[in-house]
Amino acid sequence: MSTANDDLKEAFAGESQANRKYTAFARKADEEGHPGVAKLFRAAAEAETVHALAHLAAMQGVNDTATNLKEAIAGETYEFTDMYPGFINDAKGESHQAAMLSFTRANAVEKEHASLYQTAAGDYAKFEGVTFHVCQTCGHTVPGEAPDACPVCGATKDEFKAVE
Question: Is residue 139 within 8 Å of 163, Cβ to Cβ?
């Protein structure tokens, strides 16, 4: 028998995944020339975010910044030390090249995220006024200017999105 907290965790995961899926669906609808459908998918994605954040709040899943940074470091570290290496091995064993590429890129970027969070934990002001740039191909995240070429996937500078 599940508890309310178990249900909140499952609902949070489901709503979070729906948000990302509907965001991808919106991009595809835009590419296919269906702006109204794309707008509907974006609206639903936003609603799913509202649900996910409400579930996270009900779980008391957001704490003070120090605690949140510790949790983020632990989560990212788990991903690049345990989760993705196992996924990469599974993909290699199945010769699933697309999965292997996706997992390998994500693994590299999760290491970066853990390091960035560690830096922030040591100095909350470190990134004040800094614009981050995120590669839209692999997720490589860099404070300051975007590189001419992404060191993870080779994407060009114009593939980076500024995040304020």
Answer: no
Which helix (H) or strand (E) segment holds residue 8: the answer is helix 4-31
Q: CATH number, domain at 101? A: 1.20.1260.10
Per the domain annotation, does 33 fall within a domain? yes
Say what the pLDDT of residue 159 is: 98
DSSP code at position 59: T
- State residue 4's pLDDT score: 96
72 and 94 share one domain: yes
CB atoms within 10 A of CB 133: 20
Band the pLDDT of 12: cuts 50, 70, 90: very high
In three-state secondary structure terms, 149 is: strand
- Look over the chain and give the mean of its residue pLDDT values, rounded to a whole number: 97
SS (H, E, C) 15-44: HHHHHHHHHHHHHHHHHCCCHHHHHHHHHH
Q: What is the mean pLDDT of residues 148-157?
A: 98
Return the H-helix or E-strand segment holding 95.
none
**Cβ neighbours of residue 49 closer than 8 Å, sequence gap 6 or more:** 15, 19
Structural domain includes residue 123: no
